[in-house]
Amino acid sequence: MSSFPASAHPPAPATVLLLLRPAAVFDGETMHPGWAVLIENDRIRAVGPVAQVTAPAGARTLDLPGLTLLPGLIEGHSHLMLHPYNETPWNDQVLLESEALRVARATAHARSTLAAGITTARDLGTEGAGYADVGLKQAIEQGIIPGPRLLVATRALVATGSYGPKLSVDVEVPQGAQEADGVDGIIRAVREQIGNGADIIKVYADYRWGANEPSRPTFTQDELNLIVKTANSAGRPVVAHASTPEGMRRATLAGVQTIEHGDGGTAEVFKLMKQRGVALCPTVAAGDAISQYRGYRKGQDPEPERIRQKKESMKLARQSGVALAVGGDVGVFTHGDNVREAELLAREYGLTPLEVLRGFTSGNARIFQLPDRGRIQTGLLADLIAVTGDPTQDVGALRQVKLVLKGGVEVK
Ligand SMILES: [Zn+2]
């Protein structure tokens, strides 16, 4: 039997100190062999050469020989409510799977995402699962389930008639996003989503209006301007799905934070994005996965037109100097396989491993305006991972995650 000591003052919470001694530290910008990191509770207290960062009394020391310590990765574009389309087509996920089933899956997705070293994810739309991402985020924050810190977009906005699923015109079916149009409709929908927990407003600036046609613009310039104005006034950024030059141009002029996909981007529109400070999240892994689901045998067949075009537009994007966010549209492919985007960018799209690694950490943090993470710096969140080898030489090293700390707590 135990009893509590009678005391007028509750004991002060104990300070937890942890000293990490890896082979090298990648601080979000540069590799530093022989550095160490000291963590106090959920924050980084010190970082520097081992001789200068020593263990204070009561600190636990963790030696990590052969490992590189780096900031927890920031996934730029996920859908935790989706699972790979070669398992179940998108239409069927939206129409046939219950929200309970989708949320149950999402809890498993969140766990595998965190285990893969992703400590923050921008989750860009529930695709028909309403506000389930808000509850999922709360469950993670309350420690009920493991998962990354989430920025959620909730339902996303589409122009009436532009999205899916589309069955016969005689059947009305729930849509994968919220339809909104015109001044009153748009203001109301943006406020509704924010009121229900959206950290980000996502808008589809273009889409295929019919099954067998290319994407075309959806919202007018005035509508997009209004979406951004309404969201920004509540302190939320707007991100735009867009792949046509006109959709991208309108979204850029409206003042979105990022453009997602951008497959049909031209030199002109990338230049405009660069001028306006709009970043591109190219999601190359999504196109790569979808092409393979459609039968493309990578390494055997000639490259499909879609991939060839994507490589062309990425060349133009790179030449323009537009900032690149790293995000794969994971959910289209398996959660936990987030590193696929980084590998493709480095191996097939001409980025150096260092560029990719900066993008995946400090770059995404800057673009998404998360000044408390993405770097290993005194005072920032102790969201850290340790991987085998040197990911600045080969980003494939990011698959060898041996340790994940989220807010200073070992979660793997
Ligand atoms: Zn997406």
From TrEMBL:
User: Where is the Amidohydrolase-related domain positioned along the sequence?
Assistant: 68-409
Extract the Pfam families matched here: Amidohydro_1 (PF01979)
This chain belongs to the protein called Amidohydrolase family protein
From which source organism is this entry?
A: Hymenobacter volaticus
